[in-house]
Every structure is written in C-alpha cells, then in structure tokens.
Amino acid sequence: MRSFGQMAWLSVASLGLVAAASGCTSITDHRGYIIDQALVDAVQPGVDNRQSVEKTLGRPTFTSQFGPQDWYYISQNVKTPPFRRPRTSDQVIYRLRFDAAGNVAAIDKRGMEKVARLNPEGDKTPTLGRNRGLLEDLFGNVGTVGAGGGGAGAPSGGPNGSQ
C-alpha cells in the first residue's frame, strides 16, 4: 500500500503532465474580414455602386493604389502549431472591380492559390560583395585612409584640389 506522500506526488505529477499536454495544442486564429456569404451574394455587378457596397459589406480590407481602384476583402484562418510559426490554413479574397461611373463591374473570388510560401535562407541575408571576417572588418581600412593613390596629374592639397 502506498503512503499519502507517494499518492500526493503521483497526483501532482499527473496534473503536471496534463497541463503540459494541454499547452501543446495548436491555436487557430481568424484575421481580416468576416465573410457573410448572404451579404456577398447580395452585391450584384451592374446594379450596385461603391456606396451601396460599403453599406452592404462595410469598408474594404484595402483598396488598390495603382490603376483602377479595386476593393479587396480578405479573410484568413491561421493555425499556429506549438513551437512553430503561424501558417495560413484557409484564405478567401474578394476583389470588386468598378467601372468609370463607380458601378460594380465584376466580383472575383480567390483562395489559397494566392498564398505565397517564403523560405528565407537561414539567419543571413545573401548580399553581393566579399564575405569579410571580424578581423577584416576591424582592421580592413588600416593604411587606406589618406592614401589618395597619388601619381602624375593627381590633384594634391585640400578637398577641392587646391593647396
């Protein structure tokens, strides 16, 4: 038969394991526009204009900055597994195009095919040029300061070439 101390230790250990296991669940988060499909379906090309779309769907997530002013409504579901970076699990993009009079010309729907997965190269950004070490960074300019490369016809004297 076990003593009271052993039973208490076992119950504390089991509670600790349960708490640790519950902390290893992924987090699901919603970002952006909350889509109400009935409202999106209510917007009709050729019937609605910018003002009626704003009253029906609300302000867009963003508008295009160049070219014709299209409105974008973006909705994303993002999952964050334990000890990892967030990943987009579901995405819907509605683009509303308007004609010159401000009426809805078309509504385009896109999904996960517009998600770009970027894989950076480790902890360093590749750059052009030489790879210099610490000592070269510290002492690389020794002897080059003030060495103007003199020679025939080289200006001498002050910063403007005068003496």
TrEMBL record:
Record domain Outer membrane protein assembly factor BamE: where: 32-107
Lipoprotein recorded as keyword: yes
InterPro entries with a match to the protein in the record: BamE-like, BamE_dom
A Pfam family the protein falls into: BamE
Signal peptide: 1-21
Top-rank taxon, per record: Bacteria
Gene Ontology CC annotations of this record: outer membrane
Organism: Novosphingobium chloroacetimidivorans
Annotated keywords: Lipoprotein, Membrane, Signal
Keyword Magnesium assigned: no
Gene3D superfamilies: 3.30.1450.10
Name of protein: Outer membrane protein assembly factor BamE (Lipoprotein component of BamABCDE complex)
